[in-house]
Amino acid sequence: MKKLLSIVLALAMIFTFAACGEEGASTTSTALTFATGGEAGTYYAYGTVLAQYVSNNTDLDITAITGNGSKSNVEDMDAGDVELAFCQSDIMSYAYNGTNGFDNKIESFSALCALYMEDVQIVTCDPEIKTAADLKGKTISVGAVGSGTYFNAIDVLTAYGMTLDDITPVYQSFGDSTESLKDNKIDAAFVVAGAPTTSITDLSTAKQAYIVSIDDEHIDKLIEMSPYYSKHVIPAGTYGDAPEAQTVAIAAMVLVRDDVSEDVAYTIMSTIFNNKDAVAEAHAKGKDLDLNFASSVTSVPFHAGAAKFFAENGITVDVK
Questions:
Q1: pLDDT confidence of 276, banded at 50, 70, 90?
Q2: Cα angle vertex 309, ends 304, 315, to 5°?
């Protein structure tokens, strides 16, 4: 009888420990993966800073990884491979609505915040390429396949009455594009990122680089085609001796999967925006942190955690 009782007690303890293990396994993990961009772009550099800052100052563990562009980042998020992702505001909306290259709606994510404006930069080392119209017949990098840059390049060409058939397109990352410019393998490249961009800065130390301006007429066409664009000026001296250039810009968004908890999303928001001066010391784009701008892109609803933080600061946003 005592032996039988011992066996019963042992089995009870085993089931108790198993139940505890299952309860622990169901707890939401604080480990998050953040898809950024190529190593030569602003997404990766800034995303790494944000991930490290939040990880160092909270119980969250965020790992920034390289990404293959806005479209790819959204698809990776939808597949459950990442919980956070950088994405251009136009691509975010296209994905959510299932248009412009997305065959189906992707609705597994919400907006966390807008961080800064990223410039559509047409970079060249050829002083004879003065406007986007001069790209006709040239060899041009239009960005990596699946990147937001590719979509923006198509838009600019369309605004000037061109298609990919009017140029010789190559599909390269920012870093590969600027290396090709150094080696005279291409005539120009589209680089869509916050200026100054690491890859273009590096190029300008080796050769004289120029940013090709887009005139008012064609900027108006771009804005008519897509309301996500806005006029933007890249100041003289941003890249070596390059003069001022007028272009368009688009918002850089951070997206978050819907199954990330409200507390986690809130912690990320509060940690970044309540400590924006410290973030700015680590990366120049931290100077652009602004709650009004962060909540200004409304084409996709915000995550409940972001909405909670905005509400505490007197800003009301649509919640998914």
A1: very high
A2: 100
Q: How many CA atoms lie within 13 A of 125 on its CB side?
A: 20
Q: Is residue 163 a contact partner of residue 261, using CB atoms and an 8 Å limit?
A: no
Compute the mean pLDDT over every residue in the chain, rounded to the nearest whole number: 90
Q: What is the DSSP secondary-structure string of 113-150?
A: EEEEEEEEEEEES-TT--BGGGGTTSEEE--STTSHHH
Please tell me the pTM assigned to this model. Answer: 0.84
* Tally of CB atoms within 10 A around 90: 23
Integer-rounded Cα Rg, in Å, for the chain is 23
Residue given tokens 């790209």 in the structure block = 135
Span of 33-42, 142-151, 270-279, 290-299 with lowest mean pLDDT: 142-151
Round to whole Å and give the CA distance between 94 and 227.
12
What the block records as the tokens of 258 is 């819907």
Q: Collapsing DSSP states into helix, strand and coil, what is residue 161?
A: coil
Query: Residues with Cβ < 8 Å from 14, sequence gap 6 or more?
Result: none
Cβ contact 84:32 at 8 Å: yes
Q: 268 with 222: CB under 8 angstroms?
A: no
Contact 108, 77 (CB under 8 A): yes
C-alpha–C-alpha distance, residues 118 and 100, integer Å: 20
Q: Give helix 148-159 / helix 216-225 axis angle, nearest 10°.
A: 120
CB atoms within 10 A of CB 288: 18
- Checking if the pLDDT of 126 tops 90, the result is yes
Q: Tokens 């916050």 appear where?
A: 194
Determine the Cα angle at 208 with ends 151 and 144, to 5°.
20
